[in-house]
Amino acid sequence: MAIERTFSIIKPDATHRNLTGAVNAKLEAAGLRIVAQKRIHMTRAQAEGFYAVHKERPFFGELTEFMSSAPVVVQVLEGEDAVAKNREVMGATNPEEAVPGTIRKEYALNIGENSVHGSDSLENAATEIAYFFKDEEIVG
Length: 140
Ligand code: GDP
Prior knowledge:
The protein is α+β, with helices and mostly antiparallel strands. It is about 40% helix and about 20% strand. It has helices spanning about 10-15, 20-30, 45-50, 60-65, 80-90, 105, 120-130, and strands spanning about 5-10, 35-40, 70-80, 115-120. The mean pLDDT is about 100. The site of guanosine-5'-diphosphate has 9 residues, from helix 4.
């Protein structure tokens, strides 16, 4: 196993319900270190750029509207096997299918408003981190 960095977003449904701390507690308990973090309000264009890979999907409009509807917290997480570990602690996309104890099982409202985003590969993590953070903002 190697020390990796992955990208995470605490989504509007979670920031709106004051769950930022609760989500962070789950991430830290899983051994992930929050090495960069900021609260931002994405523009629609920023959300569309971030989710460009999904632009042909039927939920693209709903997704980008949701992600730009209220503040989010963008984060860089670091730790052993961070990409896979974060996906594990997040739980399945649809909270009804998520394992008990995962963030989405405990906090997500539905498949769209599912509380967190996490990179699905090391390559995407690097791209997604660079979309929101400058190198000097990642402080370890
Ligand atoms: P993830 O990697 O687990 O976040 O899942 P995906 O990459 O498949 O989808 C990206 C995001 O699009 C999800 O986290 C959801 O917020 C949203 N999404 C996925 N499927 C649906 C859907 O069927 N309906 C809606 N409204 N949103 C969806």
